[in-house]
Write a structure and sequence with these properties.
The chain is mainly alpha-helical. The protein has helices spanning about 10-25, 60-70, 80-85, 85-90, 105-110, 130-150, 160-170, 175-180, 205-225, 230-245, 250-275, 280-290, 300-305, 310-325, 330-345, 350-365, 375-395, 410-415, 425-435, 445-470, 475-480, 515-520; strands at about 495-500, 505-510, 525-530.
Length: about 525
């Protein structure tokens, strides 16, 4: 949830204007109580982006729309989140709610199912032994181990503290496996007042993540014990879980899912590289990796939910302001009319605001044709500059004081510096302020996705080695023989394959690199040592 949106709904500046009006009531005739023309927000694809579903008052129900889209085809039987409720629970180890507060939690759980108060997951806690520096070093050693044992083979004797924690989470593992068999991942979008601005953000990925990490550690422990098949069985489940989480409509869970999947692929390489891993298992890995759906990119994630933040905020503010205006007494309306007339100010043009803001957001997430690293760098720098300039402009236009966050231009304190502002310039100023408050996330997933694409090719190259007694002269040979679409680097550059005496490397230049020296600093690299 973006807490600043709570400040938009009261339309505090109108209240401030009304308070001013009580103290500065002019002597006007009743016929003069008509306020300047009010132009409300029109529901259309260019303003509200969505034209349905609508609430009884004619405004767009963004929460319902998001739930309809992300929950399409979801049932209790096919929703992976439902399978994980016994693992998640309703409170964490600190007794903080996982599914929101009060009625919000009840609404989310009503849409999902029954969960115990405390889930099965055992959170990682380690009390380091020793005193002073020795205690700190011991704590750091175990923490570093925990970070690496998900990616490389290990044994119970090599990390007993972590092994104990993994075993404590064993009751969670059948639930993770069951969840991975289901095709859907859905957590309903809930808010206490039905608006997108006050959406409740649940913390369900906290306990799921703890169990997920323990589960992947167990998979790599299987590899350390010499059981590559069991290790892959666990990693295949981890892959499916990461892809399921990537179905969420919020950006943070998608970043979590992408991080999980990138680490899954790094763990895959340990199985591929292990000389005891048989050909049949590597062939199975290749087939199952190719069957996974693509991870969503930044634009797809933006269009699931974040694209609606701006028009939803405009709709909420416009509706709230109109409600306050309609509730004014005749005396207050006369005072507000005189205030607006004397200053030359107008009510905002909400359709202009909505169209301008939507156009800006579209420009941020519309990638032009790019063919070179220079063009990529120029576009990303331009994109970053657009967002930063918008944020600075919004901060500059925003007036001090919580009660003047949006409509300071119609309060006495900030009125006179705005004299001469037209309806359009006033609307444009509000556009910048609302954009700065609903700023879309600036992230791109291309680099991690390229890294993920290299693992199936690594499988094909090792299969070629096992079938022909040596690695191929080119990656194309392996890709063709095992029916793999050869991944490409950025801007038409090929994936660079280098055959070595004991293995090979695959390298992809980062998108912004124009020279080898620059590329080497951020090279996307997979290196396999398997004679």
């Amino acid at each position: 949830m973006k807490p600043w949106l709570h400040a938009l709904l009261p339309i505090a500046a109108v209240i401030a204007a009304c308070a001013w009006a009580h103290q500065h009531t002019p002597t006007l005739k009743a016929s003069a109580t008509t306020l300047p023309p009010w132009s409300g927000l029109t529901v259309s694809k260019s303003t509200t982006l969505l034209t349905e579903p609508l609430r009884p008052d004619g405004t767009v129900d963004y929460l319902a729309a998001i739930n309809q889209r992300s929950g399409s085809g979801v049932s209790e039987e096919n929703n992976a989140v439902v399978a994980l409720l016994p693992l998640i629970g309703t409170k964490n180890s600190h007794d903080s709610p996982i599914w929101g507060w009060g009625s919000e939690a009840a609404a989310q759980l009503a849409a999902l199912g029954t969960a115990p108060e405390h889930g099965l997951v055992v959170e990682w806690k380690y009390e380091a032994q020793g005193e002073g520096d020795a205690r700190v070093q011991n704590w750091m050693r175990v923490g570093q181990q925990r970070a690496t044992l998900e990616l490389q083979p290990w044994t119970s004797s090599s990390a007993p503290e972590i092994d104990t924690w993994v075993e404590a989470n064993t009751p969670c593992f059948p639930l993770l496996e069951e969840a991975s068999r289901r095709p859907k991942w859905f957590v309903p979008c809930i808010s206490k007042d039905g608006s997108l601005s006050s959406q409740s953000i649940s913390r369900h990925l906290g306990p799921v993540g703890e169990a997920f990490h323990a589960f992947r550690m167990r998979a790599m422990r299987h590899l350390g014990d010499g059981d590559a098949a069991a290790a892959w069985h666990g990693l295949a489940i981890a892959h499916r879980l990461a892809h399921l989480v990537s179905q969420e409509y919020l950006i943070v869970p998608n970043l979590v899912a992408l991080g999980w999947e990138a680490s899954n692929h790094e763990a895959d390489l340990a199985i591929i590289e292990d000389s005891s891993t048989p050909r049949t298992l590597i062939s199975t890995m290749l087939a199952e990796l190719q069957a996974l759906p693509a991870m969503p990119d930044a634009i797809e994630i933006f269009e699931r939910r974040e694209v609606y933040d701006f028009p939803a905020a405009v709709q909420s503010v416009a509706a709230g302001m109109k409600k306050k205006l309609d509730a004014l007494s005749p005396k207050e309306k006369m005072a507000l009319k005189e205030l607006l007339t004397d200053s030359g100010l107008f009510f905002p043009d909400w359709n202009r605001i909505a169209r301008s803001g939507n156009s800006f957001n579209e420009s941020i997430y519309t990638v032009p044709p790019i063919h070179t690293a220079a063009e990529w760098r120029a576009w990303t720098e331009h994109r970053h500059a657009l967002m930063q300039n918008m944020l600075r402009a919004g901060d500059k236009d925003r007036l001090p004081g919580d009660d003047n966050i949006l409509f300071g231009g119609v309060t006495e304190q900030f009125l006179w510096p705005r004299v001469g502002e037209t309806r359009d310039t006033y609307s444009d100023r509000l556009t910048r302020m609302l954009l700065s408050l609903t700023c879309p996330s600036e992230f791109l997933t291309d680099v991690e996705k390229k890294r993920i694409e290299l693992t199936p090719l690594a499988c094909a190259l090792v299969l070629y080695r096992l079938d022909h007694g040596g690695y191929p002269d080119s990656a194309n040979q392996a890709a063709a023989e095992y029916h793999l679409i050869l991944p490409k680097g950025f801007w038409g550059r090929p994936v660079e394959y280098t055959r070595k005496n004991t293995g090979f490397t695959l390298e992809v230049w980062p998108p912004e690199a124009e020279t080898l020296e620059h590329a080497q600093k951020k090279m996307i690299r997979v290196e396999i040592h398997r004679p």
